[in-house]
Design goal:
2 domains, binds tryptophan, binds adenosine monophosphate, Tyrosyl-Transfer RNA Synthetase, mainly alpha
């Protein structure tokens, strides 16, 4: 098994990032056997599709790297790096631009969502974003790619590109990657509005639990979280139509690795006055060691950069044979 996944380095990490993405990587790494290898990277080359100043981008990469390590990604066991440090991604992306079809990219729903109404004004980078993603994956011949449901289409595109390249050039070079999509992918909602995703861009800081929030802030936010006057039901069915209640119970279930039914069974008949302190406690205890490690790592830029440098060297070596073979298959002599 060769597991690979990328995450865009966005700032202001919160509980949604942790439960929706970071924690899944740590689990995959911890379940690996001796013959398998995990590649995890920060998609900073993809982040050029979002306008950001230089300092902010540098900070975001270090923040995300520190968060991953703090949450348990072990740079000695997994290959952890940022794309920009490994030129193979950009190089292979260019080669695959000859294989990917405009018609295929036109069907990508993420492009349509992100470009919005002004398609003509969107950057070319946003349009070819999925080709760079295909290069990320194919450069390493990744077999398993843990992603959220929204990335399924990009994975299918990577398979199409791999198949067409192999056929067009008569080689058996690229491995077809399989997406690994968690059955119940945790979608964490805002603490102020159970119908909106918890997001770094929500103007209300009370809407999210930041990775840097201290114990008191976490507890206070959970206690102020919007809920309802009803009791907790016996089973998850009783949460239907109760967005905020469902979100809080869902967070508890995800944090404690239980089903929502199991959490309901424990708290059935109790109100949120009793449930919230219990949830706050779980969050405080789980996030404290991650926060402390994160803040410690963030005091030493050089150490973080050294981790990424080391990972990048391993990644470059792993990608090199495939990249060389791709150039060669196309008759590009380097
Ligand atoms: P973003 O900061 O929105 O680019 O997200 C970075 C990663 O965190 C992506 O893998 C998202 O799927 C995940 N993520 C962000 N917000 C949430 C959320 N509220 N619930 C679950 N996952 C999330
Ligand atoms: N596009 C992915 C996302 O937004 C991030 C990503 C970039 C990625 N390259 C990848 C994920 C390669 C898996 C494999 O979440």
């Amino acid at each position: 098994m060769r597991v690979l996944s990328g995450i865009q380095p966005t700032g202001n990490l919160h509980l949604g990032n942790y439960l929706g993405a970071i924690r899944n990587w740590v689990r995959m790494q911890d379940e690996m056997d001796a013959d398998s290898q995990c590649f995890f990277f920060l998609a900073d080359m993809h982040s050029i599709t979002v306008h950001e100043g230089r300092e902010q981008r540098i900070r975001n990469v270090r923040d995300m790297a520190a968060a991953l390590v703090a949450a348990g990604v072990d740079p000695d066991r997994s290959v952890l790096f940022n794309q920009a440090r490994v030129p193979a991604h950009a190089e292979l992306c260019w080669l695959l631009n000859g294989t990917a079809r405009i018609g295929w990219l036109n069907r990508m729903t993420q492009f349509k969502d992100k470009a919005g109404k002004d398609r003509e004004g969107a950057s070319v980078g946003l349009f070819v974003y999925p080709v760079l993603q295909a290069a990320d994956i194919l450069a390493y011949n990744a077999t398993h790619v843990p992603v959220g449901e929204d990335q399924k289409q990009h994975l299918e595109l990577a398979r199409d590109i791999a198949t067409k390249f192999n056929t067009d050039f008569g080689v058996d070079l690229f491995t077809l990657p399989a997406p690994i999509i968690p059955k119940e992918s945790a979608r964490i909602m805002s603490l102020r509005d159970g119908t909106a995703k918890m997001s770094k861009s929500d103007p209300s800081d009370l809407s999210r639990i930041n990775l840097t929030d201290d114990d008191d802030a976490i507890m206070a936010k959970v206690k102020k979280a919007k809920s309802d006057q009803e009791m907790l039901p016996e089973t998850a069915e009783g949460l239907a139509g109760r967005a905020e209640a469902g979100n809080l119970v869902g967070i508890m279930a995800t944090m404690t690795n239980r089903t929502t039914d199991a959490v309901c069974a424990e708290f059935a008949g109790k109100g949120f006055g009793a449930f919230k302190p219990a949830l706050g406690e779980v969050l405080v205890e789980t996030l404290r060691p991650i926060r402390e490690r994160f803040l410690e790592l963030r005091t030493d830029d050089a150490a973080l950069d050294a981790i990424l440098d080391k990972g990048a060297a391993k990644a470059a070596a792993a990608a090199e044979p495939t990249l060389r073979a791709a150039y060669d298959a196309m008759g590009l002599m380097r």
